[in-house]
Design a protein that fits this description.
The longest helix is centred in the first third of the chain and has 20 residues, at 91-110. Helices cover 39% and strands 15% of the residues. It is an alpha/beta fold and 308 residues long. The strands form two sheets. It has an eight-stranded parallel beta sheet, with helices on both faces. A two-stranded antiparallel ribbon has the order 3-4. Helix 4 crosses helix 5 and helix 7 packs parallel to helix 8.
């Protein structure tokens, strides 16, 4: 049985924030090319990401947020919502696909059609707050997926894991104090977006790491801090905000993770998912801006998910 779904859409490559922007369409191409070069592309079930519905988005974002994004979409050229975050004529569709991918992934995993899924989508989502697009993000994809699991599938406990180099301030904004969700994260601190350390809510299991931290510090965080909280919480599904910009080669941050650390973390989360939630894992791409290290890191993450 093929265990892993690979969900993406060509619309996600049409969103373009300008020629020198690090969150670029080539990120998805690099991942695809690597999977083909490694000969592992044949081991996944492929799905086109659907457009998220307004019903799905409104579980997380107010209608005013959706209207603001839709109105800002240009007919041509690029429009900046803030210095980092810009829209071209294709961004609206791409953002809907990125949020829709996570909902489809949750549906597939909850129906038992596959064990786990990886959403190779952009724009990313974890910096988008309930009513504020920022940090390259327009909708909070992981939050939309989590609320879909709760509202459409009746789950009572959803875990969100975030190992992006940047703190998932948007996801925290969406779920701080919500007992249905446990968020476990590592992030470089102090660093953009300068959040996650000031008296976080009880359901936020945040582990800030100093610049220069690597695999040893990461594994300590996972084993000593995340794992006990996850075992106590007993999630019914594990969602992963899979950012790969904490990689040693990624100059967007100052952490020093390697492929073996991402492989180890994915293996560990798979063991926990097998123990607690029928192996259900949905992983959604967040950061990762150096094409070679991004592609290799996603490659080992997918090898682990698919038992290759």
């Amino acid at each position: 049985m093929t265990t892993t779904a690979f969900i993406t859409h060509r619309d996600c490559q049409l969103h373009d924030m300008g020629s020198h922007h690090p969150e670029c369409p080539q990120r998805l191409t690099a991942i695809n090319d690597h999977l083909i070069a490694q000969g592992i592309d044949a081991y996944f079930v492929y799905y086109d990401a659907p457009l998220a519905t307004f019903e799905q988005l409104l579980r997380v974002h107010p209608a005013s947020h959706l209207e603001r994004i839709k109105r800002a979409a240009p007919e041509m050229g690029v429009v900046h919502l803030d210095p980092d975050t810009a829209m071209n004529p294709h961004t609206w569709q791409a953002a809907l696909r990125s949020a829709g991918a996570g909902c489809l992934a949750v549906d597939l995993v909850m129906k038992g059609e596959i064990e786990n899924a990886f959403c190779s989508v952009r724009p990313p989502g974890h910096h988008c707050e309930k009513a504020t697009p920022m940090g390259f993000c327009f909708f909070n994809n992981i939050a939309v997926a989590a609320m879909h699991a709760i509202k459409a599938h009746g789950l009572e406990r959803v875990a969100i894991i975030d190992f992006d180099v940047h703190h998932g301030n948007g996801t925290e904004d969406c779920f701080a104090g919500d007992e249905r969700v446990l968020m476990c994260s590592i992030f470089q601190h102090p660093f953009y977006p300068y959040s996650g350390t000031d008296k976080p809510a009880a359901n936020m299991c945040n582990v800030p790491l100093a610049a220069g931290s690597g695999g040893e510090e990461f594994r300590d965080a996972v084993l000593q801090v995340w794992t006990p909280r996850l075992k106590e919480f007993k999630p019914q599904i594990i969602l992963i905000s899979a950012g790969f910009d904490a990689h040693y080669e990624d100059d967007m941050g100052g952490l020093k993770l390697l492929e073996k650390d991402y492989a180890w973390a994915t293996d560990h989360l798979k063991k926990l998912a097998a123990e607690m939630c029928d192996k259900r894992i949905v992983s959604i791409l967040e950061g990762g801006y150096v094409m070679t290290s991004l592609a290799r890191s996603v490659g080992v993450h997918l090898r682990s998910l698919a038992d290759l």
